Prior knowledge:
The chain is of the alpha+beta class.
Amino acid sequence: MAKNYYLIIGLLFINVFVGAAQPGNTRAGVQHTYASQIGIRELTGDNDGKQVEDYLKYVGLPKGNPWCAAFVCWVLGQNNVPNPKSGYCPTLFAKQDVVWKRTSKKTGTPLPGDVFGIYFSEKKRVAHVDFIDNWTSKTVNTVEGNTNDAGGREGDGIYRKIRLTRQIYAVTRFIK
């Protein structure tokens, strides 16, 4: 009887750890990680605070820097997903990683855990990035760092947002 008990425990142990390493579970892990950060706020409103500084540190930047891209890279890194480890939004949109683009006729369907970018004409580049949680033809549910209630790109924390799909410029996929 004891042998069977240890055999069952051993098989459960293997299934849990092997199952956790499967690619299908990586997307769920990324979702869990970014969702666990909702409610994080900057300490003084100057791109600071322990958790914000951890995101920035992950990409090699000091406190005080914009951190939406750093947050994305940190979340991906926590789940062992290769990423550019950058605080500069455009680096998250390498051509080979783009799966959807507003200006392209050939587009895939974005998935939860994919990264969206918003283009700002005054900067002439993508200047805000974060995670897609749910995509429809009209709206996108997101989880965003360095935003606010109004959805600005220089905010004070991590929020769930609903954006119009037409606001999204491009989407990249790091979870393969």
